[in-house]
Amino acid sequence: MSYSITALPGDGIGPEIMASGLEILETLAAKFQLDFTIETHPFGGAGIDAHSDPLPDATLAACQKADAILLGAIGGPKWDDAPKRPEQGLLALRKALGLFANIRPIQVPASITHLSPLKQEIVEGTDFIVVRELTGGIYFGEPKHWDENGAVDTLTYTAAEIERIAVQAFELAKTRRNKVTSVDKANVLASSKLWRQIVEQVATRYPEVTLEHLYVDAAAMILIQRPTTFDVIVTENMFGDILSDEASVLTGSLGMLPSASHPESGPSLYEPIHGSAPDIAGQDIANPMSMISSISMMLRQSFQLFEAADYLDQAAADTMAAGFLTKDLGGDTSTTNFTKEVKKRVKGGE
Ligand code: NAD
Ligand code: IPM
Ligand code: MN
């Protein structure tokens, strides 16, 4: 069986962590005799440079025909004033592929609790998933415009959009610890009032799952105070964006967190939750764990290659446990060396 992957390295540290991830994937493929066909395409700032478009037509077409898509990261100061920014390419890609369900797992295994800036007893055992709605809300609502005198963004959700993301969260919770925390701002926002009502309705179909509601401000606090109380968090686009970056700190670094984005049908996309990190790009110090774990999510969720994914996760965890840590986690291992150490463990040489 052959699996086709469209790779979008993007900008900043994107190409560095993509190179790391693909090298490791190649080693894993040799070990498990798997056949991956990988096509690389320009996207984001690289798309603007090559084709004056952050999402060139050929890149979108390659994504549409792939079995799965791997994305590094996009954006950077070079394109901040471009007529169409790299970020617009990312939003357009998510919309074009219908990637409404963004799954962001946050785990702090015992071996890395000491890397968190929080007390070990607070983070130990943290294991939850943020289910972020990815194709609606204030990111996409119209009208949206600004000039010197004023600006408008529009926050819209249809009942159908809320229902389908809620179903994703409840289905996930059923495979885990049977708890869903829905995060909204129903004390202020009309869209959140509807959100809460629809989530309540969906919950009646899942009697085995406990549902709790939190306002987003309180949720931000509880994430830091008692993160182990969460199982599945479901929330709208912008709240999910902010809370998941906050949650990454529990693990010690934003450079640790992967994600999967699923459509109703068609290829899924896998990407770190972080950005292109222009402040460290080109220095060979980026943490590639976010990309390695995104690849492992792809192996599981798009290809059902569970054994290979487990093996990859173990090799990466062993590498960290052996003391190979990038700078963001207080170590001095380069991206290149970390990659080499993971490959060594994938080959079984350690
Ligand atoms: P960022 O996520 O790029 O970086 C935030 C901080 O985290 C920086 O200090 C950075 O060095 C660090 N960091 C991030 N990933 C790391 C890694 N793998 N290893 C080590 N350190 C890491 O956020 P930002 O600086 O606010 O944004 C930079 C650009 O990225 C912007 O153009 C933004 O729009 C874009 N962005 C893109 C995506 C995406 O491609 N999905 C996501 C977020 C931001
Ligand atoms: C992310 C990013 C994007 C988002 C930006 C770059 C559009 O922050 O993937 O989390 O806000 O969704
Ligand atoms: Mn983000």
Describe this structure in words.
α6 packs across α7. Strands 2-1-3-12-11-4-5-10-8-9 form a 10-stranded mixed sheet, sandwiched between helices. Strands 6-7 form a two-stranded antiparallel sheet. The longest helix is centred in the first third of the chain and has 19 residues. It has 350 residues and is α/β, with parallel strands linked by helices. It is globular. The chain has 2 domains: 199 residues, 3-Layer(aba) Sandwich (Isopropylmalate Dehydrogenase); 135 residues, Isopropylmalate Dehydrogenase. Bound molecules: nicotinamide-adenine-dinucleotide (NAD), 3-isopropylmalic acid (IPM) and manganese (II) ion.
What is the fold's blueprint, element by element?
Elements: E1 2-10, H1 14-32, E2 35-40, H2 45-51, H3 57-65, E3 68-73, H4 86-97, E4 101-107, H5 120-123, E5 127-133, E6 141-147, E7 150-154, H6 159-174, E8 179-184, H7 190-203, E9 210-215, H8 216-225, E10 232-235, H9 237-251, E11 260-262, E12 268-270, H10 289-301, H11 306-321, H12 335-347
Parallel strand pairs: 1-2, 1-3, 3-12, 5-10, 8-9, 8-10
Antiparallel strand pairs: 4-5, 4-11, 6-7, 11-12
Site (Important for catalysis): 139, 185
Family: Belongs to the isocitrate and isopropylmalate dehydrogenases family. LeuB type 1 subfamily.
Binding site for NAD(+): 275-287
Properties at a glance:
350 residues; alpha/beta; Isopropylmalate Dehydrogenase; ten-stranded mixed sheet; two-stranded antiparallel sheet; globular; binds 3-isopropylmalic acid; binds manganese (II) ion
